[in-house]
């Protein structure tokens, strides 16, 4: 370009991967070639602005894709916990259903005996009374165990609800015990050789507090599963006399309820401990964890529940997770 009695200054900045995007700053003193210079400046600025808009569009698309992927991963994590709940519930519901079936069969036999006795011309009043009493007692047991099965199913439906649940007054000991059984039987459903000694240490007389039961239950389930995983890994070390143990306990400290889950598994290295609540961070092999379990747990406790969750761990000795929830909200 020829500029008469003028000067042109060119600046460049770089956009990855090494692409040069020119920006022209043109200084001139005379009117010569003014139109040409202005046209060049306009062209360069238009090119630059267009490139900026394309980059912004790409960034917006990338952000939307990341949000979609994040939502899908979070839902997958929830479905994974629901799958374990289902396995545990299948075991829990089998016992009351067995009782219902057994007592129903007994009542059918008693009913046949009662019919036969009533056909007699001189029925035995004492025997009739015994048969009717047995029928009534068995029926009470059927109602009791049927109600137990119904409550388990109701709990499953509550825990599988999506969206933001409502805060409800809840007994923490009962919730913790329920999820302890569900977590254990869920593991046993996946691996029949799985074994761990379970220990409950609940403080009785705790006040009911407002929580979202299905969400807090997911947190307890996740922490228990981590404890099961750590103890199972330590079992593979074949340490003489080692007995895998997971303990869940509750305490009231001033105006707070503590839920404490302890295991004597492999423990967590210090360099890992500081990252365990970060999204997508996991030390498990590919396919065994998304890295969202503890991140979601942290969000559930510190978000809607206004609490805290902390971890203490010694490598080779085990870990302790402490959930702290306010009594009054």
TrEMBL record:
The chain crosses the membrane at residues 25-45. Residues 45-121 form a coiled coil. Its EC number is 2.7.13.3. Residues 88-329 form the Histidine kinase domain. Keywords: Coiled coil, Membrane, Phosphoprotein, Transmembrane, Transmembrane helix. InterPro entries: HATPase_C_sf, HATPase_dom, His_kinase_dom, HisK_dim/P_dom, HisK_dim/P_sf, Sig_transdc_His_kin-like_C. It comes from the Bacteria. The keyword Coiled coil applies. It holds the Pfam family HisKA. SMART domains: HATPase_c. It catalyses: ATP + protein L-histidine = ADP + protein N-phospho-L-histidine. It is an enzyme of class 2 (transferase). GO terms for molecular function: phosphorelay sensor kinase activity. This is histidine kinase. It comes from Dyadobacter luticola.
């Amino acid at each position: 370009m020829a500029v008469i009695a003028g000067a042109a200054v060119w600046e460049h900045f770089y956009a990855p991967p090494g692409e040069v995007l020119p920006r022209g700053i043109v200084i001139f003193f005379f009117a010569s070639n003014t139109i040409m210079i202005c046209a060049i400046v306009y062209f360069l600025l238009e090119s630059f602005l267009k490139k900026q808009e394309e980059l912004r569009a790409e960034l917006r698309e990338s952000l939307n894709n990341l949000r979609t992927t994040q939502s899908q991963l979070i839902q997958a994590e929830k479905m994974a916990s629901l799958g374990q709940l289902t396995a545990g519930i299948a075991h829990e519901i089998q016992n009351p259903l067995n009782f219902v079936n057994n007592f129903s069969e007994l009542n059918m036999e008693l009913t046949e005996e009662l019919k036969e006795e009533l056909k007699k011309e001189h029925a035995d009043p004492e025997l009739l009374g015994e048969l009717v009493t047995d029928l009534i007692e068995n029926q009470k047991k059927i109602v009791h165990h049927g109600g137990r099965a119904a409550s388990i199913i109701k709990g499953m439906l509550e825990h599988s609800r999506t969206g933001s649940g409502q805060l409800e007054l809840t007994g923490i000991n009962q919730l913790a015990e329920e999820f302890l059984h569900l977590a254990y039987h869920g593991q046993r459903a996946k691996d029949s050789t799985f074994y761990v000694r379970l220990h409950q240490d609940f403080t009785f007389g705790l006040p009911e507090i407002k929580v979202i039961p299905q969400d807090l239950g997911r947190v307890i389930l996740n922490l228990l599963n981590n404890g099961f995983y750590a103890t199972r890994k330590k079992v593979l070390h074949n340490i003489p006399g080692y007995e895998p143990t997971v303990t869940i306990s509750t305490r009231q400290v001033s105006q707070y309820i503590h839920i404490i889950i302890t295991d004597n598994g492999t423990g967590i290295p210090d360099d890992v401990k500081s990252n365990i609540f970060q999204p997508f961070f996991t030390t498990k092999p590919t396919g065994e964890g998304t890295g969202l379990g503890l991140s979601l747990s942290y969000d559930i406790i510190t978000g809607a529940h206004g609490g805290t969750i902390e971890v203490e761990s010694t490598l080779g000795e085990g870990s302790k997770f402490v959930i702290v929830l306010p009594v009054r909200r």
